Predict the 3D structure of the following.
Amino acid sequence: MTNIAQQAHLKGHKVLVLADGSRLSSAEYDQGQEIEIKRFDQLKFLRKKTKSNFCHSILKEKKFDLIYFDSWKSLEHINKDLKIKKVCLVHGNEILNLKKEDRVNRSLSKANKIIFNSSFTEKLFLKNYKGYLKKKLSIIHPAFISNIKDYNNKKKYDLCTVARLEYRKGHHLILEVLYEIKKRHKLNLKYAILGNGPELSRLKDLVMKYNLLNQVDFLESYSSTEEVYKLSKIHVMPTITTPNSIEGFGISNIEAASKGLPCVVSNSGGTPESIHNNGIIVSENNIEELIDAILQVVKNLPKLSKKSLTFAKKFKSSSKIKEYLNCI
């Protein structure tokens, strides 16, 4: 949503963002933006209603052509007969709980257009939610790339993963792969992990278990993703599907490609749609395939790096925003 708002503004549109979060802690960020941001920091059960009331009120005072909703939850308390075009985004995890099926359907019935972040997410939705006309649905891969650059510097890391430290991201699989590659091929690959989350402690324990202290760096969560990509050769994201969570797309794979990094990903969820011919897709949770894929990419790095840069051009911000603005 941030990219949609910022890029729409750059195209000359007047933009108002209604966002959750503390007005006090977000003040510095908000004041640095050229778009208008209105924060809602009430208790959760009050926030959505307060936000929708403000939305209805502001639409009486000012004319807007289009409203984007980040999920069906944001649309839930909006009047169905509101005379303005409404677009709702679907990411994946928010449609998994079928106990909320009626609420989801009531909300999305108000939208003029529903945008999915991948073909996978659309298929998952249509499997569980019936009666939607195809013309009401669209797929837009949500990556905005403003700068494509191949860094010809010396690389510190062979591999990197830029992602929240959650089980489904598959960091633990990469650590096992590093151990196996070292044992079988006497090859000590260096690996950078950028992110924070509940898996941090367990991953550090695995580093100790596999004797990888000299190969793995946990970077601070505030480190620049740009800097990590600049120092790395390959981005690895072997995502895993869990009962309560899926990977709808894989934006970090596109961001990595824009810096010349080939990607190794799993076939979980919508992840395969985030690479083209610039990497390798392996079976979910398959250590042997992951080992072979990483070694293949290491061997063919120059060729795959060029393909990554070419693939990333499809996601240039200037053209991506047109997909969103012209979707309806």
